[in-house]
Every structure is written in structure tokens, then in C-alpha cells.
Amino acid sequence: MNKSTDYERKQEELTWLENLQRNSWEPEVIISGITLAFLFVFPAKIYEFSVYLIQEIGVGYFPSLLILFYLTTVVSVFKIFFVVHLCLRFVWAGLLGLSYAFPEGVINKNLFKMAQDYEYQKPADMVLRLEKVCSMTFAYPVSLVLVFLTFTVYLGLLIGVYVWFDLNFFIIYVIFMVSMIGFMALMFAKKKTKFKTWYSQSMLSSISAIYQSNIGKWLAVVYAFLIFAFSTPIIISDTQDFTTYNNDRGLIEKELEWSAKYLHYETEHDFNTRYPRTFIPSEEISDDYLRLGIARYEGDGKIIEQLNTDFANELDSLGWKTLKETADLHRVYIDEQLVKIDSWSKHRIGTTKQKIYQTGIDISNLENGTHSLRVQKLLLEYGFVDNEPTLIIVNQWDQFQFIKR
């Protein structure tokens, strides 16, 4: 009696699984469509999150850049995967309709004579063949999800330790590299170990082995490589102008020659994004006072005390203003003439609630026409290994033009 019941239960499970396999296209299309809708929103959020880490948390530019590239790569790769899957399902739907309209396929005698002696695929066979390809394409990202999820949690822990304990990034870099080398050594060791035995039984390893053994190990590798290659232009587009948030460097020649208006003028700016450096109300100024804003960087606050103590003599020799706020690290020049700024006010702006300093500059003595505004910044540059500070002056921390009417 029990054997009969077990047999019936197994048959029901097999029937249930077969029905799911036959109708897998429905959840595949729904999941791909919904996922793509979210994936096209994520890049802007990732970009803003990376900028937030720099300006509000005080995370260095390099670790924030790594986070941006890593998360953007993840999103871009999955975009390509699901776009490819939906395109294949589009072709599959067309073949499905063709198999319904012409179930017998090609009628050779009705073709031109030159094409009558050849054999052609039946629509049903093409549908079944492409169905397997579509399902395989949809299932492939599952293994990557597990990889990216594990890697993201690990990176998140490292960045958390880096920020919480205010460590030198070189220490985090060493920990990361040592852990990666150790993992690779365990994976590629010829000796069968408990770790390799455990890993081989995991879902990640099993999925990878299924693909390699069924479609070919090199084809699986090439397929993944091509997906990453196709995602490269998307990654470059989604990370554009992030270098302007590198607080420790001046503008490069390309940025000076092709100045981005949306980074400097409020009328051109999207208030859902943050300003990287300096900004004014508009390119054309008709008032006698110029309202100037400067983005605040949390990391600057960490160097104020050290500048006032360890580098007091250097500050005196430079004739630099007494450092009370991070805004005092900046000097403003209009047409290469130093502008005296008595005070800065503090504000939060836009939907991002970005912290900025703001001041008013008297430009009544300027003639009508085009004028240049340049910002100089005082900073400490820390060695990557020894973490020793060096006083630096970034002469072209920001520079752009405005027109007085």
C-alpha cells in the first residue's frame, strides 16, 4: 500500500514538474520584463549612492569608484542577459505562430525549382529547439546572481570596516587581495579537499557544471565573456563624469576644454543629482552680486585640525585664511584676481539634501562680457602605503566661465 502511494506521489511530482517546464515561458517573460524595468532605474541610484559615500560619509574616491564600477557592471550584465532573453522569446513567439499557421512546414513542390531538392526544418522542431535555448539563456544568470550576491556581501563588510574604523584603504586592499588569492588557491588546488567537496555540491557549482558539461566548457566561458563585453558601453555611459567627484585632483585638460554646463549652472542642473564642485545660478548673470555655491566633502573635515596644527607654518607662508570650516580650504579667483570672502552660509539643497556652502560675491565692478571663475583648494595628500600626509594646492580644482549682462 505504501509503495503504491509513494509511486503515485512521485508520478504526480513528475507531472507537476513537466507542466512547469512546458509553461516556463510565462514566468520567464514576466520576470525578465519586470526585472528590466527595475534595472533601467538602478544606474542613476547607484551613481548617486557612490557620490553620497564620498560627500556625506567621507569614503575615499577610489573605493567609491570601485563600488560604482562593480555595481554598474552587475546591473549592466543582467540588462544584457534579460534583453537577449526577451529578444529570443520574441523570435520564439513568431515561430510558434508559424507552426500554428503552417504545421506541415515547407511544401517543396510549391517552391522554385532550384529550391525543391533541399530539406527544411519543420516549424515545430524549430520551436522546440529555440525553447531550450530561451530557457537556457534565462537560467544562466542564476549562477551569476549567487556569485554577485556573495561578492557584494563580502565587499559591503570590507567597506563597513573601512569606514567604521577609519582605516587606511591600503589595509582593506591587502585583506581583499589576500582573501581572493587564498580562495583561488583553494579552488585550483589539485588535491581534493573538504572545501572543494563542499563547494562542488553547492548550487553555484552545480549550475556551472551543468552548463559546461552540456553546452561545452569553452562555449560557456565565451558566452559569459561576450555578455560582459557587450555591457562595457553601458558601463562607460553610466559612470560618465564621476571623476569630477574626485575631490583630491584638479580638472584635466579635457574637462577644461569641454566644460559640462549641467555641473556648474543651476538652470542646467538636474536637482535629483549632486553638484561635484562649484556652481552658480546660471551662465548669464544680470545682477551685481554673484551667488556662489561649493559642494561640501565630509573628508575635508578630517584634515582641518591636522592642517591647523601640523602645517600651521606652511599656512602662514601661503597667507591662507584661518581654517574654521571646510569652505575655508577654497580660494576663489575671478579673472585671476583673488576674491575676498568674509563668510560662508550652510545649506541643504535639492531632493538629494546635499550639503553646500554658499556666499555672495560683488561683481558690480566687472564689465559686461565673459569672465572666468577659478577655485583653488588646499588639501592633504596621503601616501597609499605609509599614509603620511603631504600638503598640496590644487590650483584648478574648478574652473568655468560666466557672462555678465
TrEMBL record:
Signal sequence segment: none
Superkingdom per UniProt: Bacteria
Segments traversing the membrane: 29-47, 59-84, 90-107, 138-164, 170-189, 218-236
Name of the protein in its database record: ABC transporter permease
Sorted UniProt keywords: Membrane, Transmembrane, Transmembrane helix
